[in-house]
Amino acid sequence: MGSAGLNRARDKMAAAGVDEVAIETFAHYFRLLEHGETGMIPESSIEPVDMESLATVAVSDEDAAAAIRTTAVIKLNGGLGTSMGMDRAKSLLCVRRGLSFLDIIARQVLHLRKEYAATLPLIFMNSFRTSADTMAALARYADLPVDGLPLEFLQNKEPRLLAKDLSPVSWPKDPDLEWCPPGHGDVYTALRGTGLLERLIEAGYERVLVSNSDNLGAVPEARVAGWFATSGAPFAIEAVRRTPSDRKGGHFARRKIDGRIVLRETAQTPDADKEALTDLDRHKFCSTNNLWFDLAAMKNALDVRQGILGLPLIRNVKSLDPGDPSTPEVIQIETAMGAAIEVFEGSRLIEVGRERFVPVKTTNDLLVLRSDVYDIGQDFVLDQAASEVPYVDLDDDYYKLVGEFDKRFPDGAPSMKKASSLRVEGDWTFAHGVQVVGDVNLEATSAQRIDADTLLSDG
Predict the structure, then answer these.
(1) What is the pTM of this model?
(2) How far apart are CA 123 and CA 203, in angstroms?
(3) Which of 60, 98, 364, 393 holds its CA 20 to 30 A away from the CA of 345?
(4) Where are the domains of the chain?
């Protein structure tokens, strides 16, 4: 028997058709929450971690080709881009030459299939909100589906809980607000619950690359697949050196008590340790969220744990309606997929170049991606054309939402491959052919327009 709150949540999930594996996984974390588990990782319990670099490891062409032929690709595609004012899959955003994230991902995979004579299945983990739009957009790629495997599977959903008593939220005026995704750690639960994990193994695939659909740098590169295959590791994550823009995010460390690698997220860091979290000299590496796992090892780990991998709990507290702080405080039970690194003995980290980590979380990131900082070659892989990726900070009052952002760049992004930074305060519209060089700061108290072919520089 469970508590009243858990029983109500179970009934609600079952009535909504949520998979039994997902319900049991939710129940596991609910009990942890009920018993006061916070998921916090104190600084005193961890130490910095170092790792090998992809730039210096030896991978033969034969090992790389063999590995990519037994690899499948999963893209996490459940996000709507609501923080950017979108109400459909963020991966439908136009990136370059009329191509969306989805277009570029599909073409990257189709190119690699030809190059290596590989089947290389591409499968999207969609949410119930992104499924229809995504599948409609992918319909133009008739060669994309692989016989016997789906193009998508759906992530699960779970009830939000009232912080005051852990009961599932009831909000009749907007029932969608009663639900939330369980974090991207749900990928393992969903793979098992849908039977896709078994199907991939039965079809002869040995490993999976999982990454975010908004990171076009996460190409299923044969050399990385070869490194993972020959390492013998059951699980690995690609890491990058942290920069000032990563200061507030999570990082890798090693747990003192057992030597296991852990991924500490911001929400798992006690307030007293926030200074250590942001110390780039101490904690040097963050996750790209590009992770590799051995399918047989994942199946075995889930089997021995009755389907519950046991990832660390993330207790996410927020307002029921993110746009209205007067609405009740709720708890979302979440897990991070990268946290599975501590589940598997022998897990590995590898440092990769920043070109494999080009996430788009804000319109600041979108401006850089749309600019000439990156070229997109015939293989549809991003090539960094600039010596450095510029720092961009656009005024949220005018640029945060994609619709408003697009109005202010009606002829596309300015040239930024010679820029170090661009900071914009106020309402500025950029005409065609604007160039940004060095460090540029724009400030205005009224709407301004930058004329065509203007050179903006710090000189």
Answers:
(1) 0.93
(2) 14
(3) 60
(4) 4-356, 363-457
